[in-house]
Amino acid sequence: MDLHVDLKDRRDLAGQIYRGLRAQMLDGRLRGGERVPPTRELARRLGVSRNTVSVAYEWLAAEGLLTGRTRAGSFVQAPPREHPPRGRATAGVKLRPRAIWSELRTPRPPEPPARHDFRVGIPDATLFPFEAWRRLMARQLRASAMTAAYADPFGHPELREAVARHIGVSRGVRADATDVLITHGAQQALDLIGRVLLEPGDCVAVEEPGYPPARLLFQSLGARVVPVPVDAEGLDVSALPDDARLVYVTPSHQFPLGIVMSPPRRRALLDWARQRDAVVIEDDYDSEFRFGGRPLETLHSLDRSGRVLYVGSFSKVLLPSLRLGFLVAPPSLQRELGLAKQVSDSHSQLPAQAVLARFIDSGMLARHLRKTRREYELRHARLTEGLARHFGSGLRLLPSVAGLHLSATFARGGARLERTLTGQARAAGVGVEALSPYFAGTPTRHGWVLGYGALTLDGIDEGLRRLRASVAGAL
Description:
By secondary structure, the chain is α/β, with parallel strands linked by helices. It has three domains: 1-95, Orthogonal Bundle (Arc Repressor Mutant, subunit A), CATH 1.10.10.10; 116-122 and 367-471, Aspartate Aminotransferase, domain 1, CATH 3.90.1150; 127-362, Aspartate Aminotransferase, domain 2 (3-Layer(aba) Sandwich), CATH 3.40.640. The chain is built from 15 helices and 17 strands. The strands form four sheets. An eight-stranded mixed β-sheet has the order 5-12-11-10-9-6-7-8, sandwiched between helices. It has a four-stranded antiparallel β-sheet with strand order 13-14-17-16, covered by helices on one side. The longest helix has 28 residues, at 364-391. The termini are far apart.
């Protein structure tokens, strides 16, 4: 333990040590059961005599805050309960953040998990091959212990090659390892792109409804974010602002509606970007889990002018806690994006990168995807059938053949009904997400977004039964 004791002068040294340690014990910085340094060690650190520290320890022991154990050392005793908890640091002057941070809408805090939780964006952790991953990680940690240097900010070379091969085979993305930059999830990829391309006041077009963390990120960079409506074919290209510098889209599985952008819309968006010298960010969200129909070409594959930045993540495929994503960038931006990554966090964690590279190259990722895709397809079908059976025409399911969630709108009623029914479901132990918070402006649809990734088939059935009972004929 590295204790900090502030010795202001050379007078009453034992008293200063005693008061400093006592304060830390009472406010919780030193917790009950923690071992304090031996008197000789602390005396050496503070530049005082060992006897001085011994006196301070004796005073603390006399007060019942420190106890000695034979051959084990001195340990903190839990302070009496009447002592006040640790308070805030001294207020001092009021520090002012940039205005943009005070103006940003605070994200909704996550609700505690419900007993029957249709939470969006959560895969089933029980399907993850923990044992295989653990073996790969143990092997890699031993190898990494021999490497003390910082790594390439673009990422582990083997992972960049593996990602390029993976998206080339699975998504038809033409890229080699030099085009791939490894990030801490898709969110960091968006941050790097924004910091490299955007000036304060630049216009960024996003889908409406859409992904709130992306909106907040671009706003935090000083951009003027303009929501653009989504219809049955995806983003309405005709509604794009003429001065948009960036357009952020999720064409494979629009978030949160689940719509697939049609081929004509994809071509129209690329034509629009070329004519206005704009850049398109393609977030290939949930593309790995497609349950029917032929997958459409990515915008990146259709692009012939180098205006599409392709972003992906392994959070849904593997685990959300595995913060590894990537972006595919044209040569014209690679140096600047690599520099932005370097000044941000040097590089993503090396052992996990190396393990993921082996996981992909060994074929384990492909096998894991086949297994999870089969399981999620069953859950998708069970939820689709169950919503129709329990709610009939009162809940309009939006067509979707991919991803880990479904969206449904109320046939009647607006914000008040959505708020009421979502609260009633939560009170009944069923967690569903309201659709309206995904809108940046005034919501034009009200309903629910229901995730099924973390629920078993029986869990879906029971959750829908309880959800139906909780709304009591209101739909």
